[in-house]
């Protein structure tokens, strides 16, 4: 059942984003920022953690999950370091994911030959 919940919740999130792309004049970058900020706001109001508990990877993999990760990192760093935690927390919480994306992207560029658009 966990896989099913992750699948349909992630699918609904993606479908809603696709509707935003198709029906509004919002550019993709703005929609991505909207998703990250929405995840952080939902985390702030303690709405996102129960959602993650129900949906699992369907809620943590989309950009909403990244926003929530940033918020939870900032919240933890503020508790530990005070005001300076505002600047440290997001970097500490997301460092592993961002670093792995960069490393695997670099490795893929070594294996595959990129093709430039003409």
TrEMBL record:
Keyword Transmembrane helix: yes
Annotated transmembrane regions: 6-24, 31-48, 54-71, 83-112
Cross-referenced InterPro entries: Spore_V_AE (IPR014204), SpoVA (IPR005562)
Signal sequence interval, chain numbering: none
The keyword Transmembrane helix appears for this protein: yes
Keywords of this entry: Membrane, Transmembrane, Transmembrane helix
Residue stretches in coiled coil: none
Protein name according to UniProt: Stage V sporulation protein AE
Upper taxonomic lineage: Bacteria, Bacillati, Bacillota, Clostridia, Lachnospirales
């Amino acid at each position: 059942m966990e896989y099913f919940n992750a699948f349909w919740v992630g699918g609904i999130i993606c479908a809603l984003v696709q509707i935003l792309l198709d029906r509004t004049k919002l550019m993709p970058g703005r929609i991505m920022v909207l998703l990250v900020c929405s995840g952080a706001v939902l985390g702030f109001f303690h709405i996102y953690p129960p959602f993650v508990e129900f949906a699992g990877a369907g809620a943590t993999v989309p950009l909403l999950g990244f926003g929530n990760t940033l918020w939870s990192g900032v919240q933890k760093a503020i508790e530990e370091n005070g005001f300076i935690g505002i600047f440290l927390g997001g970097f500490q919480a997301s460092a592993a994911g961002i670093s792995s994306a960069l490393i695997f992207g670099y490795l893929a560029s070594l294996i595959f030959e990129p093709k430039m658009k003409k």
